[in-house]
Amino acid sequence: MVINVKKKSILYLLLFILLLFIFSVSIVIVFKSGDKKSNVKEDDVYIEATSLNVTLKDYLAVSNDFGKTIKDSNGGAFAYIDIEIINDVDQERNYQLFVTKNTDDSDISPEYIKLYLTDMKDEAMPNFDRTNIPSFASLHYINDKPSSKLILSGTIGPKKHINVKLRSWINDSYVISEGNKSFSYDLGIRAVK
């Protein structure tokens, strides 16, 4: 009888430890998945990114050399976004990754907003020259989406993903004002035929 009580106690203890482990793993998964936001688009091509909206505030302007090395966002002076482009279907898809300016009366001119897109090894993506960093104003509009500027287009294979990094900052040629100006844009993606 004493042996049965010990076996039951050990069994309950193991069950408790197992439940505690499962609960802990669940919490970690929830917090880890909370690091990214999902922006689902058409034809099963979508992005997951650390942020889908960026707002830059005019209290700090930085050089291009500094901007290219940004490793995190600082609450408004510059931004860093990890982006994963995902194709969930069994066919390859053409895609366009783009940015869309949010309108506001207190905007900083787009000519002072710099964008730099790299792969995960910090190598510049097409149209993003390491020496001549494009401004938001110099990016090309998408023909049928005139409020959006193209930052990357390509083809993604079936059930594949592509990881890139987007950095943005206010160029040091901008004169800081006391008017609390800002510049805001959204990140988006779409499948194209």
Describe the structure.
Mean pLDDT is 81; it is low at 23-35. The chain contains 2 helices and 10 strands; from the N terminus they run H-E-E-E-H-E-E-E-E-E-E-E. A hairpin with a 4-residue loop joins strand 1 (37-40) and strand 2. The chain is extended. The chain is 19% helix and 39% strand. It has 2 domains: 1-34; 36-192, Immunoglobulin-like (Sandwich).
Please name the defining characteristics of this protein.
10 strands, 193 residues, alpha+beta, 2 helices, Immunoglobulin-like, extended
Walk me through the topology:
Layout lengths: L1 H32 L3 E4 L4 E5 L3 E5 L6 H4 L10 E10 L5 E10 L10 E7 L21 E2 L2 E12 L4 E10 L11 E11 L1
The whole-number mean of residue pLDDT values reads 81
CATH architecture of the largest domain: Sandwich
The helix/strand class is alpha+beta
Strand content: 35-45%
> Between the first and last Cα atoms, what is the distance in angstroms?
73 Å
Following the backbone from N to C, one meets helices and strands in this order, namely HEEEHEEEEEEE
- The backbone outline, from C-alpha atoms, is extended
* Radius of gyration of CA atoms, rounded to a whole number: 23 Å
The major sheet is characterized as: 5 strands, antiparallel
**In which order are the strands of the major sheet placed?**
1-2-4-9-6
Number of domains: 2
